[in-house]
Amino acid sequence: MRKGIVLYLDREIAEEERWAFLSEGNRLSSLLCRDLYGICFLHPGVEEKGLEAYGLWKLFVIEGTEFEEYDFHLFGSALSEALRGLPFELLLFPHSQIGRELACWVAEAFGTFAVTDCVDVRIREGRPIYVRHVYGGQYEQELTLPESSPHVVSLNLHHLDKRRPYFSSSLEKIKISLKPAVERRTKNLETIAPHFSTVDLSFADLIIGVGAGCLDGEVLNLVEELSSCMEAPCGVTRPVVDEGYFPKERMVGQTGRTVSPKLYLALGISGSPHHMAGIRGAQRIVAIN
Question: Per residue in 33-58, pLDDT tens?
Answer without folding.
Answer: 999 999 999 888 777 778 888 889 99
